[in-house]
Amino acid sequence: MPPPLSHLIIHDAVTRALREDLGDAGDITTHATIPADTIAKAVIAARKPGVIAGVDLGCATLLTTGPSTKVSVKQADGAHVKPGDIILSIEGPARAILSAERVALNFMGHLSGIATATAALVDAAQGTAAKVVCTRKTTPGLRALEKHAVRCGGGYNHRFGLYDAVMIKDNHIAASGGIAKALEKARKAVGHTVKIEIEIDRLDQLEEALTGGADIVLLDNMSIDDLTRAVKLNKGRAVLEASGNVTVETVRAIAQTGVDIISSGWITHSAPTLDLGMDFT
């Protein structure tokens, strides 16, 4: 499993989400209907099968609204659950629990959905050498959380932003004067620890990308036949990444071409939320 998320990232995300939900007046429904001294017990449980992610965010949300709340983790990030499985057991001030409910479920449901979608691709590619990775197609402000969820589902992370790797795409190539020029400029501009990746969408561009010294070549929306030919032409010179039309139905055939990496934006930008619910007991 991946290392836990930084406390700073969790605190920032939870604070922003609660500020958005509670606003200036707080939870007016709960304060109007629940006495301040009411103590309650509750659970957060799975209503659909899937892979869990975001447990630390759920706990942090509950403890932020109610520091005296006791939260017991029954299923950690990366756990495979079935309907009815309890993820968190909770006891504390009813007001605090109710005020945290939606934010905690939003985080956990969204991130568990990403982990579940990732696991489906990983499982479909089982037995091949290809790694399933995410992209920068993430929800603004939630990238670190969503990329953590991908790892909870058995996937890997692509670059985190524009700052940690060079990724030369079609518009960079067009604006800089071609593949060779773009690679030459990039190599001169960045340090020796920075990887350089370039995107191509035609097989006849591969040799120029390899000769230009690309560390990674992204094969964008290529057919299975072209991916297979690219692997043979590459002869191990660069890491090959396939992207485009990656689904549970297609990922195994893509992986079997011999590419090293399969990247999917869908697992972060379109994965359905995993249905989780909170019930008072």
Query: For this entry, what is the oligomeric state of its chains?
Result: single chain
Report strand %: 15-25%
Q: What's the name of the CATH homologous superfamily of the largest domain?
A: Aldolase class I
Provide the spatial order of strands within the biggest beta sheet: 6-11-10-9-8-7
Sheet with the most strands?
6 strands, parallel
What is the string of helix and strand elements?
Answer: HHEEHEEEHEHEHHEHEHEHEHE
Which architecture of the largest domain does the CATH hierarchy give at level 2?
Alpha-Beta Barrel
Question: Could you please say which CATH topology of the largest domain applies here?
Answer: TIM Barrel
Could you please describe the fold and organization of this structure?
With 281 residues, this protein is an alpha/beta fold. The chain folds into 2 domains: 125 residues, Aldehyde Oxidoreductase, domain 3 (Alpha-Beta Complex); 145 residues, TIM Barrel (Alpha-Beta Barrel), CATH 3.20.20.70. The protein contains 11 helices and 12 strands. It has a 6-stranded parallel sheet with strand order 6-11-10-9-8-7. The two termini are 31 Å apart.
List keywords for this structure.
281 residues; alpha/beta; Aldehyde Oxidoreductase, domain 3; TIM Barrel; 2 domains; six-stranded parallel β-sheet; four-stranded antiparallel β-sheet
